[in-house]
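Recall the central idea of this unit: under ordinary conditions, the amino acid sequence of a chain determines the structure it adopts. In this exercise we apply that idea directly, starting from the sequence alone.
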Amino acid sequence: MLRDYVPVLLHIVVAIGFAVSALLVSVLLGKTGRRTRTKDSAYECGMVPEGGAQPRFSVKFYLVAMLFILFDVEIVFMYPWAVVYRESVVQSKAILWSMLSFVSVLMVGYAYALKKGALDWKK
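Accordingly, the structure predicted from this sequence is:
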């Protein structure tokens, strides 16, 4: 049983050894240059860089993005249910009620997000 894992262990050792040796060779043989303010500044096609590196995004942007992901993931759970719904509903009504409860919980969350103004861009 342990003999089955020897190739995996050997592969890990070789990968770590290669990474460490590549870093050591780079440090030992690499050209060390002097740092100056001009070399460390961002290249802006000959223009003097102004402002910050990236513009600041409002927290509202991230909140809407997280809500989109949350409500988009529900489709992942609803798709398999919809595929087998027709065959399963004849056998049991529990599958219908479980999906209705799932959708109702999501609708409560959506109503809460609307009430809090999470989707209102003007706030």
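The chain has two domains: 2-30, 59-116.
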